[in-house]
Amino acid sequence: MAHSSLNRRTIQVGEKTPLWTAQSDSGEINIQDYLGKTPILLIFYPADWSQVCTEELPMLDELINLSGKIELKAFGISADSAICHKAFSRQIGLQHITLISDPQYAISKAYGLLHDFEYPARSTVLIDREGTVHSIRIEKDDQPRSLHEMELLLQVVREWSGISSSLEEWQIERQRAMQIQREKPLAAPTQLEMRFWGTRGSIPVSGSNHLRYGGNTSCVSLTSDSGHLFIFDCGSGARELGNYLLSPEWNPPGSDQPGQKSIKGYIFLSHTHWDHIQGFPFFGPVFQEGNCFNILGWGNCAQTLASILAGQMEQIYFPVSLYSLPSELNFYSMQVGEAELDGGKIYRRLLKHPLPSTAYRLELGGKVFVYATDHEPHKLPGALPDKLIGTDIIDPGLIELSQNADVLVHDAQYSTDELPGKVGWGHNCAEIAVDTAIRANVKTLVLYHHDPTHTDQMIDEILDAARQRAITLGHPELEVVAAGDGLCLKFEL
């Protein structure tokens, strides 16, 4: 593909790759060391920490990781120094892409990928094992690489590596990769239990004004009598959850290995604001060998999730690093709209929040649970009318996600009086939660993510207002409760 602003002839498909030696984040790299041994992928990008690259490179790294056991050496190339590359790679969690320093643009010029205004075009070059250029793609200025185009490119590498499955089959394989590997599939549950371990937003609180609703930050678990374990967020409430899982009280059938209890489950992160991850370093099960957690979120990518959790466990903050934990931790970004995990179907939807927050819908045993914390209405409702608020205010995507849910856990951090002063903070009020639940035909609405300044009495008042709203709208059958640390909802199937 030609590009009008490139200042010299671009290398063509079928030509041999130029030879070069350069410094990288892991030492000197000579491309000749890989010729005849493995295909090579060159990922040219403008600069470390630029907005597109910071999000794009981890996504590509994860895609390579999920490509199966392919033969490939991938290099990211920009003008930044090797020291800069090392810091950047560590921050965004690259594992499969080595970053090459090209300070004088010698490599970019050799491939004919330098703009007239002296920075490399965002380009991707695939070189086969024998050193012949198989494909070259040059993106428009400041546009990220197409995920689908990268899938097609890596599918070629998969075929070179002897992997026979099609692109469509590979996409299904990536969904299955999020499933915890078990010797035997979990049996269908006959009982489900939803427990609230942390229900505050922003920061943990304590004191005599916070006794009934508690003060831990976001953490909710859904478990079954047959061993299912789904965890939503890891705020400070995760410490109490961990203690519960390590206690004799948590002992589902088939969970034991000889001599010790094996704990396996899923952790869904709505987003990575501190009040949703700060309890992870105190989550006891990750400190025991034999336990396994698949950690899923929506964001830049799985490696970014890992690097963020690792960041709060750096030595200057915490004595134990993420990478020294003896449990098995696997990170995935939910780039698909749905997945099936241990027989439960999980769906996700992005919500309006300063750092995009993810709502999750879990269908298990014929019951439906929706976790939708940290989001704000599309606009302020003004004076609440005596009729349902429209989708100009309520997120229609959340209404769709919550349809016929048995439980909707919904952000209700502020009162309606407080909400106008908190626009852009990414939170909601109880009355909008009620209207959302009614529109979605929800059975039980749980008000969640209480503001740290709200006392037990203030939360009682917010709850009373929400219940009155449901009555005013003609839906007294809607059960409305306020989440508190220790709240337990049980379901017989």
Task: Please characterize this protein's 3D structure.
This protein is an alpha/beta fold and 493 residues long. The chain contains 10 helices and 23 strands. It has helices spanning 51-65, 82-92, 106-110, 147-160, 167-176, 238-246, 302-311, 396-401, 430-439, 456-472, and strands spanning 21-24, 27-30, 40-44, 73-78, 97-101, 123-127, 133-138, 191-198, 219-224, 229-232, 256-257, 260-261, 264-269, 292-297, 328-333, 338-341, 344-351, 357-364, 367-372, 407-411, 444-448, 479-482, 488-492. A 7-stranded mixed beta sheet has the order 15-14-13-10-9-8-23. It has a 7-stranded mixed beta sheet with strand order 16-17-18-19-20-21-22. A 5-stranded mixed beta sheet has the order 5-4-3-6-7. A hairpin with a 2-residue loop joins strand 11 and strand 12 (260-261). The model is unreliable at 1-7 (pLDDT under 50).
Q: Which labels suit this protein?
A:
disordered N terminus, single chain, 23 strands, 7-stranded mixed beta sheet, 24% strand, 493 residues, elongated
Write the topology of this structure:
Layout: E1 21-24, E2 27-30, E3 40-44, H1 51-65, E4 73-78, H2 82-92, E5 97-101, H3 106-110, E6 123-127, E7 133-138, H4 147-160, H5 167-176, E8 191-198, E9 219-224, E10 229-232, H6 238-246, E11 256-257, E12 260-261, E13 264-269, E14 292-297, H7 302-311, E15 328-333, E16 338-341, E17 344-351, E18 357-364, E19 367-372, H8 396-401, E20 407-411, H9 430-439, E21 444-448, H10 456-472, E22 479-482, E23 488-492
Parallel strand pairs: 3-4, 4-5, 10-13, 13-14, 14-15, 19-20, 20-21, 21-22
Antiparallel strand pairs: 1-2, 3-6, 6-7, 8-9, 8-23, 9-10, 11-12, 16-17, 17-18, 18-19
